[in-house]
Amino acid sequence: MTMLTKAIAEDIVNRTMRILTHNINVMDQDGVIIGSGEKDRLGHFHAAALQVIRENKRIDIDHVKSKQLPGTKPGINLPIVFEKKIVGVVGITGRPEDISQFGELVKMGAELTLEQAALTHQLQWEERLREELVFEVINDRTNDLLIERAARMGIDLRTPRIAVLLHFMSDENERELAKIKQDSLTYLKNYCDTNDLVASVQTTKIVILKQFSESQSIESLYKRIEALLKQLTFRSNGQWQASIGNPFSELEDAKRSYQYAREALAVGTILYPENTIYVYDDLYLSILLHANRLPADFSKHYHSLVMEDQSGDLQTTLETYIDSQGELSRVAERLFIHRNTLSYRLEKIKRITGKDPRNIHDLLNLYIEQIAYKLQS
């Protein structure tokens, strides 16, 4: 049973007195005034309220009776009923004959306010339970009891899913960041599918364990997240990024998918800061290099290129050459240079590094060293 708290009592008083010009009192089960338009009466005992609770009926107090009952004034007092039990009393101050017609309406308003508060509390409690489920799952602390508890909430933890990590970047202060995160969480819970699990994992990060079947593709998920990021960016003063882990069908693999999403975000923001979405599978090699402690001279060939290439033209040429899969005409077109100029640059890269970009094995070496250099820098 939801208790009639001071906060709810004050809410009842404020809502009612915006409509009614008479003072409103709300008393708890002990007959103590916990909400009132007359602040000096707060905390005082109201004898008529206790009588209402005992007799479960409306009690009218006239001028004469008010002198006989401690803490009372002329008015009418009615029981507040929640889940078929009396949880308190609402009173209207004034001559009973003047305010009698308002009694049932005020009682109904008080009970509706209490029901609304109870529903809000229940929804908040369910959201906290859902977030706890996410933490247990991504930390691989699952068992049959957790699966049963989730099932009672209408959640099938054995549904195939994929971890999506959202990251918010802003210069706002901590208080404003907390507000943005809460607003974003509320939006996401309405945006996501019913069986998706959403939780805040850090001040600026939110994880979604998204339902993901074998018939779906990473490409379709990518497009949906792309649209989601636009909405989140529009709703907040900052920039959003996302990373995607690997799909999982076994619950014990959820932690790995979440970890992959974290690694993709960490590495992706270093290598491709201009991007907004990072996919683990696309960054597998880079993540592998990032996870291992490499020798200081691991990128010595690419490092020599950086040292010689003050303008950055050769580094850009190599990067474009790799992105264009070695198609010379496409590389030249993207760089707005003549093919002869491109050939000259590739030859110069070979001379400086000792690795020929036109040779697949040498190109692979340069590509790996390029990634490692950026990660080490």
TrEMBL record:
UniProt domain PucR C-terminal helix-turn-helix: residue ranges: 315-368
Question: Gene3D superfamilies under this entry?
Answer: PucR C-terminal helix-turn-helix domain
Residues in domain CdaR GGDEF-like? Answer: 142-267
What is any Pfam family matched here? Answer: GGDEF_2
| Domain Putative sugar diacid recognition, residue spans | 4-136
Q: What PANTHER family does the database record attribute to this sequence? A: CARBOHYDRATE DIACID REGULATOR
Stated family = Belongs to the CdaR family.
- Name of protein: CdaR family transcriptional regulator
What's the name of its gene? sdaR
